[in-house]
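Hi support team,

I submitted a single chain yesterday and got back a structure, but I'm not sure I'm reading the token output correctly. Could someone confirm the output below corresponds to the sequence I sent? I've pasted both exactly as they appear in my results page.

Thanks,
R.
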Amino acid sequence: MSRLSRIARCGLRAAGYSGRPGTGRVLTVAVPRRVLVARAIAVIAFAGTGLAVAGCDGGAIGQNTPLNSGQSFVSDSYASTWFNVGSRPPAPKVSGTSVTGKPLSLATYRGDVIVLNFWGSWCAPCRAEAPALGTLARQLSSRGVRFVGVDIRDEPDAALAFMQDFNIGYPSFNDPNDQIALQFQGAVTPAAIPSTLLIDRAGRIAARIVGGTTYSSLKPLILKVAAESS
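Hi R., thanks for writing in. Yes, this is the structure output for that exact sequence:
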């Protein structure tokens, strides 16, 4: 089977179809056909950007770069990299529009720890990690931790439904053409979907997680960054 065929089948699975091609069976909840098709197309289109969909097509993971001065731990489709203080690349000054159509800028959260999660409603691993992200966002807000999403290659209706399904209360950038993701080239590339970047209070990238994360693995990293002086 060709790589494109594997990606297409992965797109259908992530969109909500199961079984052999052509069966049209829905895996979980009923979703409008236009949303399912949009999610599947998004997976195929996203593959052309050079980034990868974690958990699909072999579970690609991000590669280390000269900027990665910390230790990197890689297992299957999950990779966590810590950046030492003094060797952290600055996060780009990202601004744009949220999935609800409102202006959104990372500068608003300067002085806080920012958890920046790259996701898409069409991405199965994103759905798996979403409950943990929503819970941590609520639990850690009193410690000056702010969660922000970057919704990649998605339809606004599908993104809003995803956020409602998983009780995601924090804002997300609408990034249908990967323009926000591309701003991180030369700093710390997200490298896969999902990916999560931890930005310290000084606006520098402290850690990168490539692949789906969990409550137990993400919380200690966030608390480590939050405990640092700015």
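A quick pointer for reading it: The chain has two domains: 3-50, 72-226. Let us know if anything else looks off.

Best,
Support desk
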